[in-house]
Amino acid sequence: MGGTWWKLRELLGEGVAVPRLFVKGRYVGGVEEVVELNESGRLGELLDSAGVGRGVGRRECEGCGGARFVPCLGCSGSCKAVDKDGSGVVRCGLCNENGLVHCPLCHPR
């Protein structure tokens, strides 16, 4: 199982938070745990028992599919942007720490 986490870390680079799954405020796990739950079939059971099964929730939005967040258009979800004077790379000020912004279609400002 160690391969999944390392592959993800290799793709994202150092200093980037590895995704973690929370279901209704309860911590389920990181990449390794979620992959293991999915492969064993327990992830679907957990989501169904929490009432978060497929087709449940805010599925009506065509922009985000009900997730309410989309990748940042300013940095494409990388959380990195070029400094205003062009001298280097800085943290993108438009998105959250995961490189996401509220969906402009279902969560307008």
UniProtKB/TrEMBL annotation:
PANTHER family listed in its UniProt record: F1N19.7, GLUTAREDOXIN DOMAIN-CONTAINING CYSTEINE-RICH PROTEIN CG12206-RELATED
Superkingdom to which the source organism belongs: Eukaryota
Protein name as annotated: Glutaredoxin domain-containing protein
Pfam families from the UniProt entry: GRXCR1-2_C
